[in-house]
Amino acid sequence: MNLTVISGFVLAAAVVWFGVLAHAGRPEIFLDSHALILVIGGTVAAALVAFPMRQYGDLFTFLFTGILFPTKRATAKVISQVLMLSTRPEPSAIDPEIWRKFHPFLIEAYLISARNDMTHAEFKMILQGRRQRFQERNAWEAKILTALAKFPPAFGLLGATTGMIAMMSNLGGGGKEIIGPSMAIALVATFWGIALANLILLPLADRALRINSEDAKLRMIISSGLILIHQHTRPNVVFEHLLGFLPVGERDDPRFRKALFFAQNKAAPAAKKTAA
């Protein structure tokens, strides 16, 4: 579970409660059914018009598996996994328990490389194409969330407008006593529209952009490493090349040295056998 995201939502709820509802003279006014129906219902209706239903299924899956319960794929771990493959072992020779922990793109790309039925240029072209298409597909979640965020404030303004129209139409009969309460109800829709957009949808969109950016970086590391491995590059060269993707302060991770030592020890007997 992503405790950072959960904590953010809890804090947002606390801000709404202690910053608005708890000090309101009539907190129940913020639960006006007409305002909530207009903002939430209008947003859902506009969302269904804007995007097909299938993409919302993908969006909910992304929110659940990518944001609330993400799989941790640290850059250091992925680099270590690539180094483990730098001696070009047969996929069947890799421990299944270890193999299942590899990044899915690393597994897919290495199985392609292990077939040995394409040139370096062809292999590079395939990896670049798949990485780019996956990045384009992943960008849809952030685009959908950003697009949805513009609907609640608009429907909130619509609620304020309709409330003011109703207030003005009754102004002559009720006098000034109805102006305050009617204006408050009219602005409730605007409040929930702004809150829904800025406390939920826009933060989720920014989070989706960050997740996609981090995943794109991991796929670039995997592609760069496997292209070198496909060219039979020595493990130490692969190692130094992959470290270039990390800040200087993160290059002393002991997992790197351990993975490199393992790769070099595996590569040395193979090199001697080839020389003989």
**What does the average pLDDT come to?**
83
The portion of residues forming beta strands comes to under 5%
What percent of residues adopt helix (DSSP H or I)? over 70%
List the secondary-structure elements in sequence, H or E.
Answer: HHHHHHHHHHHH
Number of strands: 0
Q: How widely separated are the two ends?
A: 53 Å
* Global structural class: mainly alpha
Quaternary state of the chains: single chain
Rg, alpha carbons? 27 Å
> Biggest sheet, open or closed, and with what strands and sense?
none
- Count of separate DSSP helical elements: 12
Total number of distinct structural domains: 1
Shape: elongated
- pLDDT below 50 for ≥5 consecutive residues: which ranges? 267-276
